[in-house]
Every structure is written in structure tokens, then in C-alpha cells.
Design goal:
single chain; mainly alpha; 0% strand; elongated
């Protein structure tokens, strides 16, 4: 071991070639502590994935997403119900959507029949008024359907959108802005975890969720609402 001029052992230096410690030398505690702090800081800086809450602020957290929970069916129905009520409340002349989206069936708009006697001026006038109302309802239905389609898509998580957009029917559904086929496709994606599951498999899963459902600590009203959601699927 090297000695100092007065014969005492010289302190070990870590300034050896290459910046490495000499054999048997111990790294200073401050260096080890600094390295530990750097490691902890680096770990804490890892960004966390943000939870998807939907694009509509008024429907925050009412979303369609892929989940491992066995309650995907009732979650789908609850989200659909909230969206339907929002549309019925916020859109003009959208009462049909409030009930139709939940039931997965919008009532058809019926064109008025031609007047039996085209020479009867009163009958023709009534027909013209009815037909004008029919055309107005048609235009309103189309406008609301397009808005509802965009709203529903905005509540789909990226994973759900990947699934439905990969389906063979997506292009037709998207081009026509048909909300009922869209909801059916979303339901198949979130309940079955993919869009091409055999109908028998999807039915078995839905029945299993239905028969496993128990009231437990739910109030009577909450139990009835969830029971209806499961039954409707």
C-alpha cells in the first residue's frame, strides 16, 4: 500500500485510469446515494396512461370500453341509456332516439298515402300538409342520426373503435350514419371482446350474466333498472 511522506498509509483514490476504483476500494456513499436518487426520479417520471372518459363533457365516464369485468352487458346498457336520454333532452325533435336507442329500434317514418280522389281539393290539401310534416320529420331524423352517430363514436374507447372499424360492415354503417347497427356492433365488441363472435357464444355469455345477477345491497329501483338492462340484451 502506498505511504505518505510521514510513513502513514496514503488514502485510496478513485482517480485510477479509466475512472475506475482500485481493487478493494469502496465507492463513496454520496455517489451511491446520488445514483439511487436518480433511479427513483426516473421511475417516478414514467407517465401514466390517462383513463378514457369520452369526448362529450356532459357524458363524462359514460363510455364504451373493453373490460374484463363480468358486468360489461349492464355497463353497455347504462351507457346507452344515458346517451339516449341526453340526445332526447339536447337534440331538437329527438324523442324517438330517447327510446329507440335503448330498444335498438327506431320507429319507421311512414309516408302518407296519396289522396283517394285527386280531384278533391280538400283531401289533396290535407295530403300536402301531412306530406310536408313527413318530409320535415325525415330531415330531422337524418340530422339527428348523424349527430347521434358522432356522439356515440366519441364515447367509444380507442380499443373499441379499433374493433368496430375492423369489422366488414363498418364502411356501410359509417357511410350511412346508421346508429342502430352501430350500437349493435359496439355491443358485440364490448360484450364479446371482438366483432365476429358466433351468435351462440354471445348468447351464452349474455345468459350467464343474466342468471348470475343478484340484488345484494342494491336498492329496489337500482336492481330493477339493472335487471331490465340485462334482460334487454
Amino acid at each position: 500500500m502506498p505511504e505518505s511522506s510521514d510513513g502513514a498509509p496514503a488514502p485510496v483514490s478513485d482517480n485510477s485510469p479509466g475512472g475506475e476504483l482500485q481493487a478493494g476500494a469502496e465507492r463513496p456513499r454520496t455517489a451511491r446515494r446520488d445514483r439511487g436518487n436518480r433511479n427513483r426520479r426516473g421511475h417516478n417520471n414514467v407517465p401514466r396512461a390517462e383513463k378514457f372518459t369520452g369526448k362529450c363533457d356532459d357524458l363524462k365516464n359514460y363510455v364504451y370500453e373493453i373490460s374484463s369485468s363480468h358486468r360489461t352487458t349492464e355497463t353497455f346498457m347504462r351507457t346507452t341509456r344515458e346517451i339516449a336520454e341526453y340526445i332526447g333532452r339536447e337534440f331538437d325533435d329527438a324523442g324517438d332516439f330517447r327510446t329507440g336507442l335503448v330498444e335498438m329500434n327506431l320507429p319507421a317514418l311512414r309516408e302518407p298515402a296519396d289522396p283517394a280522389d285527386p280531384n278533391n281539393r280538400i283531401a289533396v290539401k290535407k295530403w300536402e300538409i301531412e306530406y310536408g310534416r313527413y318530409e320535415k320529420k325525415q330531415a330531422g331524423r337524418k340530422k339527428n342520426a348523424e349527430r347521434a352517430f358522432a356522439l356515440i363514436i366519441g364515447q367509444c374507447s380507442p380499443a373499441v373503435r379499433d374493433l368496430i372499424e375492423a369489422d366488414a360492415t363498418w364502411e356501410i354503417i359509417n357511410t350511412s350514419s346508421d346508429v342502430i347497427p352501430l350500437l349493435r356492433l359496439i355491443r358485440q365488441a364490448v360484450v364479446s371482446k371482438h366483432t365476429n363472435q358466433h351468435k351462440i357464444h354471445a348468447l351464452v355469455e349474455a345468459e350467464q350474466a343474466f342468471f348470475d345477477f343478484k340484488q345484494r345491497n342494491l336498492s329496489h329501483s337500482d336492481f330493477l333498472e339493472r335487471f331490465k338492462d340485462l334482460a334487454e340484451v
